[in-house]
Design a protein that fits this description.
OB fold (Dihydrolipoamide Acetyltransferase, E2P)
């Protein structure tokens, strides 16, 4: 699937993209306690979208990495589409 095809509400999204930007890691309070979260701007040849990663997934990727995302879902935050990875989802670096 390509970024331009993503629509809010989609589930089980598998996509490959390049990380082009990383925000500061921040700590937020959730119903599970305090957790670290970070937003990454990713792109493919069709567009860009923010990817929100939590806890252990944050350290897996860096700017410039080509990544593969599996089982993500598309939501909307502050009027912008974003990709999120649920507990059964996966993000991995494809760099050689």
């Amino acid at each position: 699937m390509k970024i331009a095809e993503l629509k809010v509400g989609m589930n089980n999204v598998d996509i490959e993209a390049v990380v082009i930007e990383k925000s500061e890691v921040r700590t937020v309070q959730t119903k599970y306690g305090f957790r670290e979260v970070c937003d990454f701007l990713i792109q493919d040849e069709t567009g860009k979208i923010y990817l929100t990663l939590w806890e252990k997934n944050i350290q897996k990727i860096k700017v410039g990495d080509r990544i593969k995302i599996e089982k993500a879902f598309v939501s909307q935050f502050k009027n912008k589409k974003q990709l999120n990875i649920p507990k059964n989802g996966k993000v991995e670096v494809l760099n050689i």
